[in-house]
Amino acid sequence: MNTEITVPDIGDFESVEIIEILIKSGAEIKKNDPIVTLESDKSSVEVPSPFSGKISSVKVKIGDKVSKGSILAIIENEEDKTSKQSQPKSVEDTKPPISKKEEVLPETEKIIKKTESYITKKPKIETSQKIYVRPSRSDIDPIETQEWLDSLDSVVKNDGADRAHYLLKKLINEAYKDGSHQPLTRTTPYINSIPVEMEVKSPGDQNIERRIRSLIRWNAAAMVVKANKKNPELGGHIGTFASAATLYDVGMNHFWRGKNNKFGGDLVYFQGHSAPGMYARAFLEGRLTTSQLGNFRQEVGVDGLSSYPHPWLMPKFWQFPTVSMGLGPVLSIYQARFTKYLINRGLIKDENRKVWAFLGDGETDEPESLGAISLASREKLDNLIFVINCNLQRLDGPVRGNGKIIQELEGIFRGAGWNVIKVIWGSYWDQLLSKDKTGLLIKRMNECVDGEYQAFKANDGSYVREKFFGKYPELKDLVSSMTDRDIWKLNRGGHDPHKVYAAYDEAMKTKGKPTVILAKTIKGYGMGKSGESINITHQQKKLDEEDLLYYRDRFDIPLTDKQVKNIEFYKPNEKSDEIKYLKERRMKLGGNLPERTIYAKPIKKPAKDIFENMLKSSGDREMSTTMALVRMLTSLLRDKNIAPRLVPIIPDEARTFGMEGFFRKIGIYAHEGQKYEPEDSEQLSSYREDKKGQVLEEGITETGAMSSFIAAGTSYTNHDLEMIPVYTFYSMFGFQRVMDLIWAAGDSQTRGFLIGATSGRTTLAGEGLQHQDGHSQLLASTIPNCVSYDPTFAYELAVIFQDGLRRMHEKQESIFYYLTTMNENYKHPEMPKNCEKGILKGMYLFKEFNNKGKTKVQLLGSGTILREMISAAQILSTEYNIDSDVWSVTSFNELRKDGMDIERKNLLNPSIIPEKSYVEECLSKRDGPIIAASDYMRSFADQIRPYTSKSFYSFGTDGYGRSDSRKNLRKFFEVDKEHIVTYTLSALAKEQLIPSTYAEQAMKKYKIDKTKPLPTTL
Ligand SMILES: Cc1ncc(C[n+]2csc(CCOP(=O)(O)OP(=O)(O)O)c2C)c(N)n1
Ligand SMILES: [Mg+2]
Questions:
Q1: What is the model's pTM?
Q2: How far does the centroid of ligand 1 lie from the alpha carbon of residue 395, in Å?
Q3: Hey, which of 273, 310, 359, 408 would you mutate to test ligand 1's pocket, going by the most ligand atoms within 8 Å of its Cβ?
Q4: How far apart are the first and last CA of the chain?
C-alpha cells in the first residue's frame, strides 16, 4: 500500500532547505534509513523513513524548502502504516487497561489509608519532656545501651551482618519519620572496614613474597641512589614506592591480569612517583636489564628509563601517564566508563576487566582527582578500583596534620556512592582490638590526628607507648606485657599483605559500584632515620653508606658491604624460588604488567564520494565551517567502516554547534537506556538516550570530555580496537582549560580529532572576553604530535579530515588533530584544482589578482580572515591598481614545523645547496612584501617570518576579546579589509614601491584613528 513520507516535527524551524536526497525511486529501504538531509542556518539533520518498503516516487528536489508535514516521498509500505502498532507507542498506550487499573486501585487505597491512619493516629512524642542525650554526648543509660548492643550482637551472630544492616536501616528510617536527629553516617570508626573473621586469606607463600618484595624495594631504592651518585641533577623518589610496595606486590602476585590472546587485560594506572618500583619488578622478571636500571632518568642515549610513566618515551612499557597529579584518577574513571561504553555498544566482549588506579593521599587535593567520582558511581562502574596510598604525607609535610585524611576521604567517597574499604591496621593489631573491652582503643584511634600518627612512626616503640597508649591507663595496661619492639611491630594495614589481599578480593567481587581502598601506610617505610615518616622523605634521593647498610639489613638483601657501597642491584638466580615464583605468578595471571601492545586493525579509509559534497561550491547557500563539519560527520556515519568507530564527544554544546541531529540518529550513550519519554520525543532531534548510544554527551566538563577523548583515542592499544573520537568544544574552553590533559593525550599517543568550534577572537562576536579565542592555535603548536589547521572553506576541511583519517586510523601514526571551525556563515567556493597538497602542507595559492599594475603584494590569510584578505585584494586591485596573490594558509603551525626542519638541515649541511622551506617554495618567485593575518594573535602568523627572505608584516587579534558585532570587532583588532588595505598601502610605501599618500588617504577614508593604542592595552 502506498504511503506518504512527510517531514516530522523539526522543532522551531520552518522552510528548511533540502541539501541532500538520499533515496531514489524504486529503491528498497529499511525503517530509519535516511530519506533527505535538511539544513537550517544552524544545523543539518537527516530525516529517517518511518517505514520499510520500496520508494514509489520522490516528491522533492535539492534546494526545495520544506516544513513539518511536507511530503518527501511515496513508499510502498511493507507494514500497515495506519495500524496502531507501527506508530511509536505513546505513554498512554503503555499504561495498563482500565480494568487492570481498577484491580489495583483498591489495593493502593488501602495502603494510602493505612499510612494516613498511621500518621494521624500515632501519638506525638513529647520530646521536650525527656532528655535522651546529654550535651556532652556521654551515655545517660549504659545498661540500656548495652541491651541494644547485645541485641545487635545476637542478630549478627544468628542472622548475619546483612540482616543487622537491614534492621539498622529500618531503625534509622523510623527515627527520621519521628523527626529525630539523624546519626552522622558520613564516616565509620577508624578501624578496618573488613572484620577479621570476614577476611579472605591470601593463597600466596608469604615468605617468598616478602623476600621478593624486599628485593624490589632494594633495587628501586638503589636505582635512584645510583643515578644521583652519577649525577645529582637526575633526582628521583624512594619514599613513595617504599610506602606502596605491598599495595603493588599483592596486585602483581594475585590480582592484575595481563593482556594476551584470550583476555584484554586489566588496566593499571600506577602512581607516577612509584615508577622505580615497577622497573625493579620488571628487572627481576627479566624484562629490563641491569644496564637499563643503571640508566634510570637518563633517556637521551639508548636504554634509558623514563622518570615517570610516559608511553611516548617507553611505548612498549608504560600505558598511562599519571605523574601530573590528578590526571591518573580522572583518566581512569573515564577509561572504566569507556570500557563499559564499548561493551554496551557491542564492540568488545565483557570479560570483567578492571581498571585500577593508584593515587597518593596528597594527590586527592587536586580537583581533578575527586571531581569526577560521582560519575563513577552514577554509571555504576564496578570495573573501577581506586587504591589511595594514605601515607599521611605529601611533599612538604602532613596531608592533614590536624585531621585524618582517611576519614575525610571515606566521607567524600561514601557520599558519592562508592564502596569504601579502609585498610588501616595490620594483623598485629587484631589481638589488641579484640582484647580491648573498654572501647578505649578505638576511641584513641579515632581521636589521634594524622600529625600524631606520622610522629609515632618517626620515633620508636617507647614513644608510641607513652604518647598513644599512655593517654588512658586501661590502654597502657593493655600493652604492659609488650616490649617496645613489639609495640613498634604493630603494623599499618597497607603494609600487611593479608589485609591488602582481603581488600582487593572484596573490591574484585563488588557489584554495581566502584570501590576505593584507603590504605594507611608509612612514607619512606624501612628507610629508618634517613626517611621513615619524616617531613623531608619525599625529596630524599640520596642515602649515605650507613643508610644503605641499614636498608640492606632491614630487608635482608644478600649483598656484601662492598656491594652495598657500590650500590649494586641484586637479582637472584633464574632458578631461585623467588624468580620462579614471581614469573609463575605473572604467567598464571596471563602476562606482563605494565606492558603496552597494539593489535588493533587499521580502519579502511572512507569512499571518496563521502566527501564529494564538500568539494563542490555551496552555491548561494551560506554556512559556517562548524556546520560543514557536522555535515561531513553525518555523511561519515553512512560509511560502514567508519560509522561504528566514530565517537562524537560533546560537553553540553551540541545545540551550539548544530549537532543535535546526532541525538536521534545515533543516540546518546546512557548505561541505563532511557527511563523516561523525552518531552521532545515527537521531534526529529529528540533527546534520545540509549544503552547502545554512540554520542558521549558529557555534560559541562571539559576535563571529563577530554578524558573520554583520551580513552577513545587510545582504545587501539587498551582495547585493541581503533576508534575515532571527535571531541567538539568551544575553542576557548579547550587548550586553555585542559592543556595538561591534552599534553597527556600527546604522551599517550592518542589518535582523534579535537575540534575547536566557534573559534576566532572576532568571529565569535557577542560572547565577549572569556569566550573569544585568539590563541588556541598557538597553544596547539606547543604539542609536538598535534597537527593543527585553521581552515576557511568546506573543501579544505574535507581534505584535512580525510587525510587525518588516513594518517591516524589507516596508517596508525601517533598523532592527533586540532581543527578550528567557525560559526560565521558564508558561501563556499568549489575546490580549486591541485590544491590538496598545499592544503595539507599549510598554504596554497587561492587566487591571483594580476591584471592591473606593476606593484604586487602577497596576501596570506587564515580562517575567516582569509575572506577579509580576498576583499582587500579586490579593493587594492580596483581602487589602487595593486596586484596581489592571495594565499589560503590552512596552518601556520605546519608551515613552521617545515621551516624549522629545513632551516636546521641547511645549517647542518653548509656545503651543499640549501633546500627551500615550503613557504619559500611558494613565495620566493613571487613579487612584493608579505601581509599575513588571522583571527589569532600576531605570533600565530609570525611563526613563518624566519622562513622567508621577504619583508613580512603580520596582523592579528592581540588583546582581550569583547562583545560587539563581527564588523566592529574586526575594525577594533585591525583585521578587517579596510585595515588590511591601509596597512598594505603603508607597507608598500615603506618598501618604496608606492607613495605614502595612498595610505594616508586610506586612513582618512576608512576613519582609522592613528592615535588609538594597540588593542593589547585596551
Ligand atoms: C600537578 C602536579 N603538581 C605538583 C606535582 C609535584 N609533586 C610530586 S609528588 C608530590 C607530593 C605527592 O604526595 P602524595 O600524593 O601524598 O604522594 P606520595 O608520594 O606521598 O605517595 C608533589 C606535590 C606534580 N607531580 N603534579
Ligand atoms: Mg602521600
A1: 0.91
A2: 6
A3: 273
A4: 69
